[in-house]
């Protein structure tokens, strides 16, 4: 079995973390860099990632997370917050970064900039919010799989109250919205879930090969 499949078989949604085990600074940096390198539409990355290790903040987030123990027991809580709305600055900032990174004059990128703006800026706010949320999920998935490569446990969590997260983390002032949460750390030996076989659709049911 290749390590690709092996690591994904090993990974599971950890229900009980060992609160005494913390992720090293080097491993955390690797996880964040893997997240930074994730693909996104046009490369715009219309989201922000909040990494929470402060126990007091985690305690505040727990009631807003249906009192799930992963929030306070995991080493880190990583919140993906999508841009609730955006204007031309999203494209302008990206194009400026491209210009600097690739040493391309800004005027040489005007056509690409205008194209992106024509596809994005006039979208309804609801559509923008949906699109930026999807982009956050791409990075979220990359982080989860990178953790599996390092044998770091995760639990993807949608069971939380975004409005309260936004308030606690000061996201409203930044025009951000908590979209999805990943608890990251190391499984407890008491977590019986780790011993259960994965339940997935068969290849025949899931895939159509044309």
TrEMBL record:
Nitroreductase domain location: 10-186
Coiled coil, from the record: none
One family name in Pfam for this protein: Nitroreductase
Record's keyword annotation contains Oxidoreductase: yes
The keyword Phosphoprotein is annotated on this UniProt entry: no
Annotated keywords: Flavoprotein, FMN, NADP, Oxidoreductase
InterPro entries assigned to the protein according to its UniProt record, in alphabetical order: NfsB-like (IPR033878), Nitroreductase (IPR029479), Nitroreductase-like (IPR000415)
Protein's name according to its UniProt entry: NAD(P)H-dependent oxidoreductase
Family: Belongs to the nitroreductase family.
Matching SUPFAM superfamilies: FMN-dependent nitroreductase-like
Required cofactor(s): FMN
Domain of life of the native organism: Bacteria
CDD domains: NfsB-like
């Amino acid at each position: 079995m290749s390590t690709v499949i092996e690591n994904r078989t090993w990974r599971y949604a950890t229900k009980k973390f060992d609160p005494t085990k913390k992720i090293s600074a080097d491993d955390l940096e690797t996880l964040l860099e893997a997240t930074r390198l994730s693909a996104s539409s046009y490369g715009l990355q219309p989201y922000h990632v909040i990494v929470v290790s402060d126990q007091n903040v985690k305690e505040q987030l727990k009631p807003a997370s249906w009192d799930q123990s992963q929030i306070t027991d995991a080493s880190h809580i990583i919140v993906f917050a999508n841009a609730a709305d955006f204007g031309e600055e999203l494209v302008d900032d990206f194009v400026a970064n491209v210009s600097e990174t690739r040493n391309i004059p800004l005027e040489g990128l005007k056509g690409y900039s205008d194209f992106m703006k024509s596809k994005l800026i006039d979208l309804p706010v609801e559509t923008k919010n949906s699109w930026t949320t999807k982009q956050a999920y791409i990075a979220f998935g990359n982080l989860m799989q990178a953790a599996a490569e390092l044998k770091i446990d995760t639990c993807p969590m949608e069971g939380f109250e975004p409005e309260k997260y936004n308030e606690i983390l000061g996201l409203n002032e930044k025009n951000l919205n908590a979209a999805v949460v990943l608890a990251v750390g190391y499984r407890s030996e008491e977590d019986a879930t780790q011993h259960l076989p994965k339940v997935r659709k068969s290849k025949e049911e899931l895939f159509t090969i044309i």
